[in-house]
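Reviewers asked in the last cycle whether our approach scales beyond single polypeptides. To address this, we selected a multi-component target totalling 1000 residues and predicted its structure end to end. The input consisted of the following lines:
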Amino acid sequence: MTMASTLEPVRGARRAKDIAYRVSLWLCVAIAMATLGVIALYVLARGINALSVNFFTKEPASQLHPEQGGIVQSFIGTGMIVGIAALIAIPLGLLTAVYLAEYGKGRTASAIRLVSQVLLSTPSIVAGAFIWTVVVVAFGNFSAFAGGLALVVLMWPIVARATEEVLRLVPQELREGSLALGLPRWKTILRVVVPAAGAGILTAVMLAVARALGETAPILLTALGNDYINTDPLKPTDAVPLRIYADARTPIEALHTIAWGGALVLLLAVLLLSIGARVLSVRQQKRLA
Amino acid sequence: MSGSVSADELAGLGAGAARARRSRFIDRGFRSMTLLLGLALIGLLVYMLIDLTAGAWRTFEQFGLHFFVGTTWNPVRGREEFGALPFIFGTAVTSFLAVIIAVPVGVGLALFLNQVRGALANPLAVFIDILAAIPSIVYGLWGLFVLRPFFDSTVEPFLASTIGKVPIVGALFSGKTQGPDMFTAGVILAIMILPIITAVSREVIAVVPRDLREAALALGATRWESVRIAVLPYARNGIVGATMLGLGRALGETIAVAMVIGNVPKIGWSLLAPAATIPSWIASSFREASSVGLHRSALLALAVTLVIWSFLLALVSRVLVRKTEEQIGEPVGDEPVSVARLGAGG
Amino acid sequence: MSTSRIRAVTIAVVAIALVTAACSSKSSSGSGGGAFEGVALTGAGATFPDPIYEQWFDEFKGVMPGAKINYQAIGSGGGVEQFTAKTVDFGASDAPLQADEISALPGPYIEVPTVLGGVVVAYNVSGVKSGLKLDGATTAKIFQGEITKWNDPAITSLNPGVTLPSTPISVVHRSDESGTTFVFTSWLSSQSKDWEKKIGADKAVSWPTGTGGDGNDGVAAGISQTDGSIGYLSYDFAVSSGLGIADIQRDDGTFVTPSVESISKAGGDLTLPISSDTNILNSKTKGAYPIASTTYLLLYQDATDQDKAQTIFDFVTWALTKGQSSVQQLNYSPLPPAIAAAGLKELSKMTLNGQPLTASGAVTG
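The resulting structure, written as structure tokens, was:
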């Protein structure tokens, strides 16, 4: 610091540029926070009007009294579609990650990683188009199952990559200790490594589910939508994002309010999962550090 | 273990050998199963590419390379003509606009997060994660009912009357200000890709060696100068990589764009005119497209175009991030998983 | 995760699966004794009749409580597409099936008209009230971009006594596929050889000028946002939009205001069975609105699922009889009784495993 004081004080153009720099950084922060604030406020303000008992328990009402209806079938449908997707994608992703983290050192593993990166960056509409041609036409039906499969295409690489990272973080000593005690490799992985990474894996799952909850395009092409409750996974099913999309495009104000309500619930669910995932991962890092 | 071996132990060892053989068998089986699943993932991608290309084949057969440069999209049977250029144009313009807006803000945020420790940094990072987590449909709804009316009534007339009057550049903001347009879509996309650009830029900036920056500061450089001299040159490749990743996400966003862009297959100079992107067009036309005739096949051809485009982009960004790593000598962290990176999809 | 937790999760998953299976089997079980209550159906297609169809489905549930009909208005093109792929139980289209679509169908079909409607030319010009007179040739030129100002002689000559401003004309058209576009462009093709040659008629065409709106509401919004705009809307929608509606000139020279009455006058032109160029445009009946149209339900003749076949048979029977009395309140026009009867005759072609169907008591009583 004494060196600095013997040099010429910063003035003129240099100082101006520095101030401009600092101000613009704060400006960026302000822009980001303001944008988030505006979005959150609007969704909250407009969505809260829609939330009522009817909203969560009734199906859409007739043309003449749209505000009395609800979107219970969308909630059930989203649960079913995302549930199916999770049931398939989580084990698949987990075991793929196990291969990558525990066994994969060579070219095969790199290829798998590259592929999952490509799938991760594939636009979700493409997954929807793909599943439409393969599943919807083959079954002869739009279905929750097809919607779930379209989401699997997106969730599988997410779970795989995120879980791989977490598994890598498990200290090597744990593995070596377990093997030294005589446990075979597969038991080591399943009974020692995976549980040690437990919270991290949960984080990965939560992130994947959060992503799946908000996806619209892939289920637009595969689940069709439904005005009634449907519990058969092989039939057309509604989902919250689909309902929001459809309601927003009608000219009926009451349905717009319902759309905002759906958006609010969706946003809260996704936020809870994302923030929860973040909290868990911080805790996991502390545990393993 | 004691020196002598009892008869029981001998018997146990024999059984143990059998157990060990069985265990090795299960071990191999387990490993093979996980390998198989990994290969299945590759198979899934390959199957998807083959299936889409097969569906698109009739279109490519009929129009060949003209598909990519044709400007007419006419599904009327008897006059069918499918050219993808309007959608390539719309995708390129909106993504470009999104990047122009999001990169400065994102890099600024990254620099800010990098230099600030403590109380403010964590909440800000959390807020960016929240922005990343917001689903595309919510952005679309907000864009349709909040941003679009606001832009239509305030921002766009302002732009049209100021920049719009400047010669040459003014063409960008000419024409009707009402209604959906590329400008609104570009802004929404910018908000949506901000988190990933910020996250990657942040990592890239974080691995720049501190010594250079501190040396510059010690020599009396201002903060701006230290960043300009000691951080940005090293982070440049990585920031370009982040830009590419952001572009990649912008490419794939479907619903939010579909709700604010107007879905009109036209090419023009004005940002205030409606247009269409590849994903928004596929989303709005797919369910209605008939497979008698080429319409459905042409949409699949658009999907293939998009896949190729995003694949090339991902490749380029990967190379650039690697180049930064080489320069710095440290791994940037092979795309660690976070909400900002995964975001919420379209 | 510990072993006990893995066990717990597995049990939960199995339980959910069992419950789901139980629920789905309950919903697909046939009706026991007693009156037939109907089952859930899925249909998809035209947006033009969506409001009245939704109203009908709601009312029909009062007649048959089990008939939950899920209709997704994805567009006429989508209706035909999904009907062909058999991914829905019935399709709905504003345009009659074309030859290549028919040859792609996997089995013999039934095409029944359900309700009448019309397409209106709507506009937003300050100072100009509803009722501006337009003819086919002028309208075609406007939508082609050849007439660009409201005070063009072609328009003023049709409207003596009306002061038209020099505002430029902004055209608004549909950006999505729609039967409304099909009807409108079919009419334009019939009125202008130039239009027919250059643009043609279809559910989506390559528009030479103008901006696109998504759905009727998108077009209505587009028209109302800019002074001097003109576009086309389905009649039921235009009535509630508050926009100016044009009187269209008939082939006999008279001008007709679109209304439920003037549209229903065109209904007499319908002949069944429906052919690929069936239309009720330019009706010769005096006072009939020229841009009138109908919309069709698509079914397969040979049904195999008893409950579904009975439900759809009952619904269409009800719609063609009792349902017709509800259409006017939503600004649609009912089918002429003769046409409705002809429609029922078409419906009687439907068979279940070779046997003809009869309507349930709840529908005929």
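Confidence is low (pLDDT under 50) at residues 333-337 of chain B. We regard this as preliminary and will revisit it once experimental data from Aim 1 are available.
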